[in-house]
Amino acid sequence: RPRAAEEPFTLAPPATDHGTMPNLKWSFADSHMRLEEGGWARQTTIRELPVSKAMAGVNMRLKAGAVREMHWHKEAEWAYMIKGKARITAVDQ
Known about the structure:
This protein is mostly beta strands. 5% of the residues lie in helices and 17% in strands.
């Protein structure tokens, strides 16, 4: 109920909605949390938000000194850091 109250049109669309637009909202709070020794991550992909075919998002918190696993994918990646310091390595052909 609290989530429905945040976006009432998700459960009861307005009369002008003809069902042609998929849901474009997803809360990271609704994503599975992966808890590791160095912190936690919640990932949202096409599994949770089917309309998101070209982009995924990860909400994470890392402890000081923790390292995120090395990974790569075809799509570009961006980050928005709210607090702290980080060292990154980026490779782009």
